[in-house]
Amino acid sequence: MPDAPERCTCGTFLVENAAFCHRCGRPVRALAAEQVEQPPVVPPAPPAAAAPPPPLPINFGNPIAVRVAFLMSLGILMTAFVPLVNLLIVVWCLLAGWGGVRLYRRLTGLRLTVAAGARLGFLTGILATVSLTLIFAMGMLFSGQDIIDQFAAQMAKQASPLSEVAKNPSEVGALLVMSMFLMFVLMVGICAAGGALGAKFSPPAEPRA
């Protein structure tokens, strides 16, 4: 069967395999649709998920660490002024460092390393001793001589070289300052140790669903 009739509707003889009549321009056979191969459409790559920012180091530039250390230092202060309870100040400093690590993990979901836990305890000890020093300084401001006299009276009761020091007010003041410094070192060290222990024995992170 021929692809197209020999004549157009206008009566003109058609050229063999002609698609249009050369006289009237009428199409005489169906044109095969030219299929243009389209390049495969590559779907755009999904945007890369933004990497979470690295956790802040444990220092005074970390607001969450500062808040946790401040709360733990308040706990130490509360026990420091309670009779008999303040005799266990070493225990409370250890617990403050330990509890600070647990509270920080609860607030951030991060498990601290031993070094980071020690730094958090270090911040707690600094805030606690600074607060105690300020309270002591205010007490000295309002009743400084009374505090020195009481301190000297306590040393005078002891049968030791300190009883001789108690007779010199300047030496009593120097010894009082030295005692405050030793308290600072001990409290900071014990709180740091508690933070390190809290991080060391912290349970592993729970897998997220």
Break the fold down into its secondary structure elements and pairings.
Elements: H1 63-80, H2 89-108, H3 114-156, H4 162-165, H5 169-200
Describe this structure in words.
This protein is mostly helical. It has a domain of 137 residues. Helix 1 runs parallel beside helix 3, helix 2 runs antiparallel to helix 3 and helix 3 packs antiparallel against helix 5. The longest helix has 43 residues. The two termini are 70 Å apart.
Short description:
The chain has 209 residues and is an all-alpha fold.
Describe this protein with a few key phrases.
209 residues, rod-shaped, mainly alpha, 5 helices
Distance between the termini: 70 Å
As a percent range, the share of strand residues is under 5%
Q: What is the averaged pLDDT score?
A: 76
User: What structural class do you assign from the helix and strand content?
Assistant: mainly alpha
Radius of gyration equals: 43 Å
Shape: rod-shaped
Question: What's the total helix number?
Answer: 5
User: From N to C, what is the helix and strand string?
Assistant: HHHHH
| Largest sheet data | none
Low-confidence segments, given as residue ranges, are 30-36
| Helical content (DSSP H or I, runs of 4+) | 55-70%
